[in-house]
Structure of Rieske 2Fe-2S family protein:
Amino acid sequence: MPPSQISPSLIATLPGHYYTDPDVFRQEQENLFESLWFCAVRSADLDRPGAFRTVQVGRENIVVTRTRTGELRAFLNVCRHRGARLCTEESGEVRRSLQCPYHAWTYDLDGTLIAAPNLIKMPDVDRVAYGLIKVALREWLGYAWVCLADEPPSFEDTVMHAAVERLGDAAAIEHYGTERLALGKRVTYDVKANWKLIVENFMECYHCATIHPELTEVLPEFADGYAAQYYVGHGAEFGEGIRGFTVDGSAGFGRLPEVTADQDRRYYAITIKPTVFVNLVPDHVILHRMFPLAEDRTVVECDWLYAPEVVASGADVSKSVELFHRVNVQDFEACERTQPAMASRAYRGGGVLVPNEHHIGIFHEWLLAGLGETHA
């Protein structure tokens, strides 16, 4: 059902309880985060056999590891014996296997049960059947995406389609060669706000003139409320005299090798539902991964990615990092200011979207459909 039309200019948002109700958040965990593809970890972070990282996906904790033959594998982070958490650290490296710290059940990096106290006296135990529970995994843009669903949705029709839908060309995102880029900086933000407030904020620029002075200096279109997510194939153009996507407009680095002339001096933003933002500029890529942990808490991990030679040279990337770091801080502070009001009687019926924000209603329709609801 389309968003409620209040007037030709205004349509209704979701009511406030969608941002504060633990039961709504539980439904989102089950129907969205545990059912759709979820961007878990940067592949290059697991750069050798035995490297692992644990991530929270909905209500499940997942361990992603690299096998001895070089593939990435994902498993539920649960020992099959008595249910203890297998990997208790957020990241680390093991030599050859994953061992439960409770009773020492031990698993190969491919998930097979390979050892346990007195296991030799239990010849009837099927070491594959009692191996770790596998989680579907795909790699794209240099990241490992996982899906907990028994029958995952099409990766091409959901995740990859978001880039086509926004850029209007299946090959356009490939020009940035994201999977070949190197990590120049990572910043983790612990945001005291519902994940949907962060998505909605990213999808509109009605707020840009108010809280993003540095960004609107580089991208003057944003000062007029230009909706970065809305116009297919259109990237916001750098302002006159702006030399690079940096905090002071100074030059950045050379254009990435396959970025086209049409993509030069432009910024493109892509939302990959439910929890990923991709920001494309000529000389680097900024990728946000959200980890919703509660109805009022979201951890956001933001990576700045550059050509490998830029990072290897020790080049100073601080001016380009600082631009979007400031944007992040400004946005997340706005979301944190908004979160308390979601529980106010003033927001029981929700708020309104002005024309520059009407496309957020499409996100609301998607959300309600995912929750099995026809209206808010």
